[in-house]
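step: validate -> pass
step: tokenize input -> pass
step: predict -> running
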Amino acid sequence: MATIILVLSTSLSIKWVGGDSPAPEKLKADLSIVTVQKPKVELPSVFKKIAWCESKNMQFNEDGSVHRGVQNPQDVGKYQINEHYHLEASRALGIDIYTTEGNTEYAYRLYKANGTRDWNWSKWCWDDQSVSASTWEKRFKQNL
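step: predict -> pass
step: emit ->
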């Protein structure tokens, strides 16, 4: 039995493996159904709290502009990624910190490398053991 293998790279190609290759019209594939998605990563539970404390969970302002830090306007997005320290590195990785997905991906990379150290400024908020779970739940419902 022959198999069709889709090879994903910068371009999509179809390779016939095994047996005689069918006529070209039979080899056509409906590539509109092929989607490539990054695997979903389950974010650490502290990420919800960090996002709330850093930006009230906002990537964008009501006018559509990227949310910036009040204390430091170089902090951008949901996880307040600092442009001065991280923009060049994020671009080198092909990550756009101005999008929700990119801001989250870069924040996750920072977390994997440094733990929560990059958000120590807001630790008083997200690591406050006196804030009850029900209070956090109310905050999330209001802002997620």
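step: describe -> Strands lie at 3-8, 12-17, 75-76, 81-82.
step: cleanup -> pass
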